[in-house]
Amino acid sequence: MKKHLVALMALSFLIGLIPSAQGIENGDDASGSGFVVPISTDKGNGKYGGCSGALIAPSIVVTAGHCVLDANGLLTKSVYVGIAGSSASSITLGDKISSVQITSTFQNAADARVGDDDLAFLTLGKPQTLRTPIILASEKQAAELKSSNASLKVFGYGWYGDTTKEATTSPKSMSGTFSSTNSLYSNSAYMATTNANACQGDSGSPILNITATQVTLVGILTGATLSVQCSKKDNDGIYRTLFTLVGRYANLAFSAATDVMNSQEQALSTMKSQFIEKDSLLANANTTSIDLRDQLDVAESELDTANQSLEDLQAQLDEANAAIIALNKQLPQTILCSKGKLIKKVTAVMPKCPKGYALKI
């Protein structure tokens, strides 16, 4: 069986970032779901690969390892992650991730077949809103879920059908159970369904166990035995979809979280430096303001002194004018007095015309 399992990654030959991945065949509409994100990877030469991913923290997405490889099978950071539950066609160049952590034991198999430990953690360049908390299932929890054939649910952006080319971009979901069938891969398991099934583009889809109180990420969908572009039923009438268990890779989640914290710390350091610079500028401005205030106080004091001096000079001038008037009154004055044709000049301190004479004006 192992050689027939194909990685469910879709390729698009369109210009832009629109992956040809659309939704699970016969699945339920999951538009707006906070669990799954659309992923587009620049493969080179104008080709883009479409995958799905699980949002487990505002800045961390888990997907399949083969979803972050270029056309040469090399790890790339030219990966773009859209908003959870949004249209796959809404991805832009501004949605590029900042870092990627991949399992050290992952080896991409030839001819698009599934490899072991097919898992990667992406650090987003732009944080998203995590509406529902998600925990990662430990290896013990995964074993317990398998032994009880627990219910599982998957959300993905894969094709709608085996041969359809319908260009709908919203995600779909399907429900199934944790299969008791053992995988030939060391850290993988199967999800069993009877109606809906995974298609190309569903690689990286979250495999979840959802209860009334908790959402648990059990694994990441990686591949299936294909009919055309969707999985085909086994002889017993069951669709079995392979997924990589996440339990043993908490260290990668921690590493991705560390990348986020380092990025935030760097941003905080930059903000601190800017604050110190602005604080220094403010201190200088305050010093300049104090200096200007001191100069203004001195100028106001000098103006008050000048005004007082002006008032004193005006008082002295008034006194001098009064003295002049008084002195003028003490000086002899000459007037002309007339009586008919007779003119008489009278000089005195307070002169007046003799009787019978009139002041000649």
- By CATH, the topology of the largest domain is Thrombin, subunit H
Molecular shape: rod-shaped
* Weakly predicted, low-confidence segments: 13-22
Question: How many individual domains?
Answer: 2
Name the average pLDDT.
Answer: 83
Strand segment tally = 19
The CATH class of the largest domain turns out to be Mainly Beta
Report the C-alpha radius of gyration, rounded: 47 Å
Helical/strand content category: alpha+beta
As a percent range, the share of helical residues equals 10-25%
- Helix and strand element order: EEEEEEEEEEHEEEEEEHEEE
**Span of the ends, CA to CA:** 146 Å
Number of helices: 2
Determine the strand fraction and express it as a percent band. 25-35%
Q: Please summarize the sheet with the most strands.
A: 7 strands, antiparallel
In CATH terms, what is the architecture of the largest domain? Beta Barrel
CATH superfamily of the largest domain: Trypsin-like serine proteases
Short description:
This protein is 25% helix and 29% strand. The protein has 361 residues and is an alpha+beta fold.
Observed structural traits:
361 residues; Thrombin, subunit H; seven-stranded antiparallel beta sheet; six-stranded antiparallel beta barrel
Helix-strand layout with pairing:
Blueprint: E1 5-7, E2 10-12, E3 28-29, E4 36-44, E5 47-57, E6 60-63, E7 79-81, E8 99-102, E9 120-123, E10 135-136, H1 139-147, E11 151-156, E12 172-178, E13 188-193, E14 206-210, E15 215-225, E16 239-245, H2 250-330, E17 333-339, E18 342-348, E19 358-359
Parallel strand pairs: 10-15
Antiparallel strand pairs: 1-15, 2-5, 3-12, 4-5, 4-7, 5-6, 6-9, 8-9, 11-12, 11-14, 12-13, 13-16, 14-15, 15-16, 17-18, 17-19
